[in-house]
Amino acid sequence: MSIAARERLRILARRMAGLSFALACIIPPLVLIAVFKALEQSGDADIFNGVAVDPSGIGTAAKAGIYALNSALALALSRALWRLQESFRHLGADAPKLDDAAAAMAASGRWFLIVAIGGVFVRTASVVLATLHLPAGERLLSIGIGQPELFGVLVAGTLLALGHVVALAASLDAENREFV
Questions:
Q1: Domain coordinates of the chain in residue numbers?
Q2: Nearest Cα to 65, choosing from 126, 155, 127?
């Protein structure tokens, strides 16, 4: 790889590390604020992807459960973005640590997969908790896989594959250094 190409990669990796760090700090609190506001508004609210529920009837324990589930998912998303930031930081270093970058990238992919799969379960549990106060026959169980989950699986698969490719590149680099 030429020196100019290596420098462009280093600059891009450092920018992406900064962006990933900013997203890890900004997105999870915004998610939690949106959930909190949705649970506190009055009137029918379409807060669970097509399931209209009156938040004023939801009990305190159910609201706490919904908030706790979404908090766990937001923390998993933050962890995924943090690991992605670590991989870019390793790639953007003056002496890139490809093994560490590959491990962080694969870990980020695993966390994104947890977020994608967890999103389905959290939404389902949230709908159950939100309608638990309703009389029998009116309670809902809503299980759905939407575009966000599919996109999450795509991102996770891409990061896992890239982590594997970077790990192979690191082993080839080490082999080339031993040969020379």
A1: 3-179
A2: 126
What is the model's pLDDT at position 21?
93
The kind and range of the H/E element at 77 are helix 60-91
> What does the H/E/C string look like for 85-146?
HHHHHHHCCCCCCHHHHHHHHHHHHHHHHHHHHHHHHHHHHHHHHHCCCCCCCCCCCCCCCC
Supply the DSSP symbol for 1.
-
DSSP string, 16-59: HHHHHHHHHHHHHHHHHHHHHHHHH--S-EE-SSS-EE-GGGS-
Q: What is the residue type of 7? A: E
| Per-residue pLDDT at 140 exceeds 80 | no
Count the neighbouring beta carbons within 10 Å of the beta carbon of residue 112.
Answer: 27
DSSP structure class, residue 180? -
pLDDT of 26 strictly over 90: yes
